[in-house]
Design a protein that fits this description.
By secondary structure, the chain is α+β, with helices and mostly antiparallel strands. It contains 13 helices and 22 strands. The model has no long low-confidence stretch (mean pLDDT 89).
Length: 625
């Protein structure tokens, strides 16, 4: 070996050692940096002819198990979906309180029920009447607070979606910038290991927000798709748009019709400029953003509907009374007259008849509406699974009402308006295939006195004292009613109206009629609660029971939902933590190994330096001769 060869070998060794020293120092410095992967330098022997002429330090490689990394990224979406759901469910469950606890909804309902029972024994007691109204105010406030918390959670979800979308857009832009740098470096032959680490960190952010698949591409590029196949990144980043709304109310819901939509919608604008509404197409499967959308549009509205259904039944139990039809005949036809003058929007008329053949009893429910745009009504507009429902538009007058009822019932019935606001419904007479067995109406009391001894508008809609009738007009009066329910201000001004239901003759102060009726309706009345959107019962088998029973169902439902989401979250976090540990173990820097490596490199550096020194000494010796 000549001196020049020895010199070349020593210099190449020093250069390789220098790069290794820098890389080892970087490994040690970034040992605790999130997303940093251990780096190593690929080295190969340079051969010239049959001789070793040096050491070539090639690309820097990352210590990374890509299979584990892909599993980890896939698990991130499910873990973030579950964690977000669990966080919100816990907040909602805490708002309801543990069943039977002092501030729980069922306890407050029970306290109100007990105050009504106490009033039956002492209707002339000012203190007893005051206690009823005090308990009622506490109950209404609890409804308001729970509904307010639900809408506050929806508003939080709306804002969180907006923040997450900004985070996603920033990450995708970073991925595009980094990928361009990586491709440029890859083309120039410079290994971009640190850039790959940074891009992986941004991909991890996207994986937390969406369910994505990451596919390697040429020149160390990547392609990112949702599990449903939408492209988020392919050399160019897609862009998300979300029109965040301010504080939400129960009436603000998502709709494909932008003129009706009250919440933000999530659109994906592809690199080519095409817009896709991700909520309308329902293409997201998991991730934090999908969880927030489900909470805002499904989970929390369901909780709102449960509360609204409870408040609805609660108010109507105390305010509605029955008006029975009067039996009439006309020749061979038999049927009933019923006065609809007191029927309010949302009130119902029930027609019961027997049809032969097949010899079966049937029920038709007619619901007053004043807004024809809500027609026709679906059968689940009432909680009864066995009735046939028709909406009747009262905006055209009583004659139009009679015509509509006749059309709804069919040719076997004769429907007319004999006078005033009375509707007459007759069977088919001699044909005897229809036998009307009953006609009645459920009417909401609009007055505190001189209307019904057993019902009164105890709870009203909003502080203005608007009567609550369960109207289906517009979006429906039931929507958000739990946030608006309040005690009738007239009762608060004069609590004797809880007892004195008539002015002529005036009801005695000790009369128990109204107090007993109210207590019985609330404590012992059985109701069918609508399953529409509540998740309790079904259209075919709605929950039937007392108001307090339904309240316990609501609390239990939310408690069970919180426990279920907590269990799912625990399982998902366990899976994620396991993958994270495996990924970290496969990529992490071992300080002890790196320090030992430094010692080895130091010795190698010293050896190469000694070779250089020896060559120099030889050259000096030769030059002296």
């Amino acid at each position: 070996m000549g001196l020049s060869s020895a010199l070349g070998l020593a210099l190449s060794g020093l250069n390789a050692n220098q790069r290794n020293l820098e890389l080892t120092a970087a490994n040690i410095a970034n040992a605790d940096t999130p997303g940093y992967t251990k780096k190593s330098l690929n080295q190969r022997v340079q051969v010239g002819g049959s001789r070793v002429i040096g050491i070539q330090a090639d690309e820097v490689t990352r210590l990374l198990d890509k299979a584990i990394q892909r599993q980890y990224w896939a698990s991130l979406a499910d873990a973030n979906y579950a964690d977000t759901r669990a966080t919100y469910a816990e907040r909602l469950d805490q708002a309801y309180g543990a069943p039977g606890s002092t501030n729980a909804l069922d306890t407050i309902l029970s306290n109100f029920s007990q105050s009504l029972e106490t009033l039956t024994a002492s209707p002339d007691s000012f203190a007893a009447r005051s206690e009823v109204l005090s308990r009622a105010q506490i109950l209404a406030s609890q409804f308001n607070a729970l509904s307010g918390e639900i809408q506050s959670l929806r508003s939080d979800a709306e804002r969180d979606i907006g923040s997450a979308v900004q985070e996603a857009n920033l990450a995708l832009q970073q991925i595009e910038t980094l990928t361009n740098q990586i491709i440029e470096n890859s083309t120039n032959g410079t290994p971009p290991a640190d850039l790959l680490d940074e891009r992986d960190r941004q991909v991890q952010t996207i994986s937390e927000l969406f369910d994505v698949t990451v596919v390697p591409a040429e020149n160390n590029s990547v392609r990112i798709f949702t599990k449903s196949g939408l492209t988020l990144f392919d050399r160019r980043a897609a862009q998300f748009d979300f029109d965040t709304r301010s504080t939400l109310t129960a009436n603000q819901e998502w709709s494909a019709d932008d003129t009706e939509r009250g919440v933000g919608t999530l659109e994906l604008r592809s690199a080519s400029g095409a817009n896709i509404d991700l909520i309308e197409l329902d293409v997201l499967r998991s991730g934090r953003i999908k969880s927030l959308i489900d909470l805002r549009d499904s989970v929390l509205p369901q909780a709102q509907q449960q509360l609204d259904e409870l408040a609805h039944s609660f108010a109507l139990a105390l305010s509605n009374y029955d008006v029975d039809g009067t039996a009439v005949t006309s020749g061979a036809q038999e049927g009933f007259d019923i006065d609809l003058s007191s029927l309010a929007a949302g009130n119902e008329v029930t027609i019961q008849y027997r049809e032969t053949p097949p010899g079966e009893d049937r029920t038709v429910t007619l619901v007053r509406v004043d807004d024809p745009s809500v027609l026709p009504l679906p059968n689940n507009a009432t909680a009864d699974p066995n009735d046939t429902v028709f909406g009747i538009d009262f905006s055209g007058g009583i004659g139009s009402v009679a015509t509509q009822i006749g059309a709804a019932l069919g040719g076997s019935f004769t429907v007319s308006n004999p006078s005033g606001s009375t509707i007459q419904i007759l069977d088919d007479g001699a044909a005897a295939t229809i036998d009307i067995t009953g006609v009645s109406a459920s009417v909401t009391a609009s007055s505190l006195q001189d209307e019904s001894a057993e019902a009164l508008p105890f709870f009203v809609d909003g502080s203005g004292g608007n009567p609550y009738t369960g109207s289906l007009d517009g979006n429906g009066q039931k929507v958000g009613f739990s946030q608006r329910i309040t005690v009738n201000p007239a009762l608060l001004r004069d609590n004797s109206l809880l007892v004195i239901h008539s002015t002529s003759p005036e009801t005695p102060a000790g009369d128990t009629t109204r107090a007993v009726a109210l207590s019985d309706a609330f404590k012992n009345g059985f109701f069918e609660f609508s399953a529409e959107g509540t998740g309790i019962g079904s259209d075919g088998a709605p929950f039937r029971g007392r108001i307090e029973d339904y309240a316990r169902q609501v609390i239990t439902f939310q408690g069970a939902a919180a426990e279920a989401t907590k269990s799912i979250n625990t399982a998902q976090q366990t899976t994620l933590n396991g993958l994270e540990t495996r990924l970290r173990d496969a990529t992490k820097v071992n300080i002890d190994e790196e320090v030992a490596r430094l010692s080895e490199l130091q010795s190698a550096y010293a050896a190469n330096a000694r070779v250089l020194q020896a060559v120099q000494e030889m050259l000096n010796t030769l030059l002296r001769f």
